Amino acid sequence: MDKYAAITALSALAQATRLDVFRLLVRHEPDGMAAGEISRQLEVPQNTMSSHLGILSRAGIVRSERHSRSIIYRADLDGLRALTLFLVKDCCAGSPDLCAPLLAELTPCC
Q1: Closest Cα to residue 73, out of 96, 90, 92, 56?
Q2: Quick one: which H or E segment has residue 73?
Q3: What gap in Å lies between CA 17 and CA 78, rounded to an integer?
Q4: d(CA 43, CA 104)
Q5: How many angstroms separate the CA atoms of 82 and 97, rounded?
Q6: Using an 8 Å Cβ cutoff, are 9 and 58 in contact?
Q7: What is the pTM assigned to this prediction?
Q8: How does pLDDT run across 66-77, given as a tens digit for each residue?
Q9: Of the four listed, 27, 46, 64, 67, which is most buried by Cβ atoms within 10 Å?
């Protein structure tokens, strides 16, 4: 991931509703959720939600797939992984013991 892609992803997440959407989708991996259900759960109008989902998709952290008449959205875990790795790539300045607490926090969730 280059810095411009990282900036795009971070910008997409720097809005409360989009951050809520992303976190909701992460909780519903690997099945994903229909756009209408995301709107209902977060109490956001569907047209507004469509905009938010588009921004997250273009940022590379949410992906969608059509199933019959529904569009199922999923958190793009590869995009999240790339963003996280980009952010911590230069961590530790060659001293892995400095990053140990960060890695310990990330390991149980994955």
Answers
A1: 56
A2: strand 70-75
A3: 21
A4: 35
A5: 22
A6: no
A7: 0.86
A8: 988 889 999 999
A9: 64
